[in-house]
Design a protein that fits this description.
The chain is α+β, with helices and mostly antiparallel strands. Among the domains are: 109 residues, Butyryl-CoA Dehydrogenase, subunit A, domain 2 (Beta Barrel); 122 residues, no CATH class. It has twelve helices and eight strands. The strands form two sheets. It has a four-stranded mixed sheet with strand order 1-4-5-8. The chain has a four-stranded antiparallel sheet with strand order 2-3-7-6, with no helix packed on it. Helix 4 runs antiparallel to helix 5 and helix 9 packs antiparallel against helix 12. The radius of gyration is 22 Å and the shape is globular.
Length: 444
């Protein structure tokens, strides 16, 4: 079972420049924080950011190739998480020059870790129906309310908060976006254990929590536009990468002051350096989006079964389509164009892909797919079972597959957005979008 592709090459000279820089600057004996300081200061941590916002102005495709090159070289990757993927691009787009210079450098160098304080128990799909309130008292806002599905909240220094600052305005017009300090008496984070056995999500209770007005991004009551920028970057990232790579038994250092990883040795988080192989023209190793399934089928001795091979090819095709969507957008932007709705239908495609990956992985495993390590202490024993590490990755991916079609805006919400904003279909009847929030029925 051999499927290969050679994606379009990145910007000319980009990868050679990066390799030269890595050869001069990577040192495994640096602390994690020290390495991330070098990486972020040189613009390699968040290369999609504008050049004047501590990035390199690259397309998403080129930025992904930068990350792959860092990995192939054997250096520690850039900080993972929302600080770079969502907070920094939002601040770059809507923040003042002072806010850009104050808030983005700690994000791209891993000094702070962000979480997303958007969804609420009564405002998930209808995010604009949020009820968390922020009341201004001079230069400080006091925040009261509850958030939920807060990924990584237990490790966050700052939260991307949207709160209602005008209950008398229509629900989309009375929202403001803040960078809220998470480490303060008025913020309580409670983990929510998932069926994977882990607790990535949290619920967050805000009781007279404070945020300074100079940490408000955008205008007062103008936060819905800022929020849409954040969501666009969230959905674009999910569309390009499938909402995160499933790893088992791999310790990834976290940014910020809470996790305690910044002072640890950077080289301790990097596995054995990969053997350097001859690269094809364009600088990328041929591989398939379905490579994980190919490896798993080989591991369990089922790679010659026609029905499984057909499903693997389907996974390859859909993954290739997702990649080509990214490249299509890259080409359009290079000539000043755009592909409206790409983050939305790209996320829907990825949601379909992860469900296919779930079903295919479990089909390959058969009865072995009913076993999963819900506790890290069991991983060594699970490695000895048929399928080994690849089987553990497959069961972890299957348990996580239910998440992507929900978080970041459900599939149904994405369809509504595409229908109304891209295709021009009529909106829901009624005047709720124009009525003051305080007059709306519950969940209206």
């Amino acid at each position: 079972m051999a499927i290969a592709e050679t994606p379009p090459a990145p910007a000319p000279g980009l990868i050679d420049e990066l390799r030269t820089w890595l050869a001069e600057h990577w040192d495994p004996d640096l602390s994690v924080g020290g390495w991330w300081e070098r990486l972020g200061s040189a613009g390699w941590s968040a290369p999609m950011l504008p050049v004047d916002c501590y990035g390199r102005g690259l397309s998403r495709g080129d930025a992904m190739e930068v990350a792959a090159t860092i990995s192939r070289f054997g250096a520690l990757a850039a900080p993972a998480g929302m600080a770079i993927a969502m907070a920094a691009p939002t601040i770059a787009a809507h923040g003042s020059r002072e806010q850009i210079d104050r808030l983005i450098p700690p994000a791209v160098t891993g000094k702070v870790h962000y979480c997303q304080l958007f969804s609420e128990p009564g405002a998930g799909s209808d995010l604009a129906g949020l009820a968390t309130k922020a009341a201004r008292d001079g230069d400080v806002w006091q925040v009261n309310g509850q958030k939920v599905w807060t990924s990584g909240g237990q490790h966050a220094d700052l939260g991307m908060l949207i709160a209602r600052t005008s209950p008398d305005a229509p629900k989309h017009q009375g929202i403001t976006w803040f960078a809220l300090p998470m480490v303060q008496p008025g913020v309580e984070v409670r983990p929510l254990k998932e069926m994977t056995g882990h607790a990535i999500f949290n619920e967050v209770f805000l009781t007279d929590a404070e945020v300074r007005d100079d940490d408000r991004i955008g205008d007062v009551n103008g936060g819905w536009a800022v929020t849409n920028t954040t969501l666009m970057h969230e959905r674009s990232g999910m569309a390009a990468r499938g909402g995160g790579v499933v790893t088992v038994g791999q310790r990834i250092p976290l940014g910020g002051s809470i996790a305690g990883d910044l002072d640890r040795r950077a080289g301790d988080f990097v596995g054995e350096r990969r053997k350097v192989v001859a690269m094809p023209k364009g600088g990328r190793t041929p591989s398939s989006p379905a490579q994980r399934h190919i490896d798993l089928a080989r591991e369990v001795g089922r790679s010659d079964e026609p029905v499984l091979r057909q499903a693997v090819v389907q996974a390859h095709i859909l993954g290739t389509v997702a990649h080509l969507n990214t490249e299509r957008q890259k080409a359009l932007r290079a000539v000043g164009g755009d592909l409206p709705g790409l983050p939305n239908f790209g996320k829907m495609l990825r949601a379909h892909i992860v469900r296919l990956d779930r079903d295919l992985g479990l089909e390959i495993l058969g009865a072995r797919g009913m076993l999963h390590s819900y506790d890290d202490a069991d991983q060594a024993a699970m490695e000895e079972l048929p399928g080994g590490h690849e089987a553990m990755v497959a069961t972890a991916a299957a348990l996580r597959a239910q998440g992507l079609p929900i978080y970041g805006g459900t599939d149904q919400i994405q369809r509504n957005i595409v229908g109304e904003r891209i295709l021009g279909l009529p909106k829901e009847p009624g005047d709720n979008s124009k009525r003051p929030f305080s007059e709306l029925p519950k969940n209206g």
